[in-house]
Amino acid sequence: MNRTSKSISISHLDTFKEQLLVWAQQFEEIVWLDSNDYNHQNYPEYDAILAVDAFTSLKTDFQGAFDQLEEYQNTTKDWIFGYLSYDLKNDTERLTSKNTDKLHFADLYFFQPKKLFLIKNNTLEIHYLSMVDDEIEEDINEIYTAHTHTSKNNHSDLNIENKIDKDSYLKRVGEMLDHIARGNIYEANMCQEFYATGTINPLDTYIRLNAISAPPFATFLKLEHQYALCASPERYIRKQGDKIISQPIKGTARRGEGEEKDSAFAKALSQDPKERSENIMIVDLVRNDLSRTAKKGSVKVEELCRVYPFKQVHQMISTVSSEIGVGISPVDVIRSTFPMGSMTGAPKVKAMQIIEALEVSKRGLYSGAIGYFTPTGDFDFNVVIRSILYNTEKEYISYTVGSAITAGSIPEKEYAECYLKARAMRNVLEGIS
Questions:
Q1: Residue 42 pLDDT more than 80?
Q2: At what angle do helices 13-24 and 136-145 cross, to 10 degrees?
Q3: Is 234 noted as a catalytic residue in this protein?
């Protein structure tokens, strides 16, 4: 698909990014991806990306979803943006999703944007489909004159509730530990949903959440009446040429006040045997997943159990890479690795069966992935965690958090870890940020 392109230099990048996002609110389809200037060799190729205004789209349930995505990607041969919900597991395995769903996201949704903006190193690349390329200059002027966003609503009237109480959560973790003791699984990610009914300002909420967390895979997604306001620190998978990169996160610790205390928390996380074992188990799972589409002998662990600081927490991250095999399509790589190991467990299928039995909410977009394909078939997707999901028609607001359960897990500590991960979302919704 031919696009008209234009490049311009940007001064005052932070202001321009906010103006661009404010201008985008007029459209029904928005994907905004922001790396927040995170400095790491394997982090996003662009500093920020905005895709708006669908020319074509694909929206479907799980049945045959990956086949439809592959056909759509091959047919458009263009940039496409969207998401994969966790429940696409039912397309690749004989699994079901029967838990309560109040958000009603489609299982898969991608669109081909008429208007695309790529930001890197203070340069803006604009790529418009030919049918709208006469609007480039007018749009640039509108963006530059857009007012930066002013916070108007602190959401303090929201009553945030937990889908299950603490005792029920602890009991379910105990059941997960029983499965581990019997050898059914080695590890599984156990999640719980928090929710409220009411209305929020999605842009305001995203800006405040991003300011608190400033993660490398921040996302503002709007598709019709549904929003994902995402402060994810985690990459699911990236394809760049023949190279595939996956960066699972397992292991979380709080930040400390003062450099000495903060360094102590990071060091303790790096040496924690339980956290390291969680991470290594998932690295093994990712290695196995990638091997299904890799050239023989090309799967490598580039980085194992390295602790990275983020504004809210320290995270233990590993980097696993491979070279894609001959004749393997981009969608095949995703199909064979989805859902990501960090949000499922080991063995993966059995872990997902147990997760479905013990959790009470359908995950939907949570623990799925948001990202894009390029015209050449490269892709980059995050993991949808640390995110607020919102359905404006249902006036339903939700965030879900989880932790990895292993034989060494102490239920009370897992509960505390969930609350640590939930703090940013809760503070934003309660107007504390």
A1: no
A2: 110
A3: yes
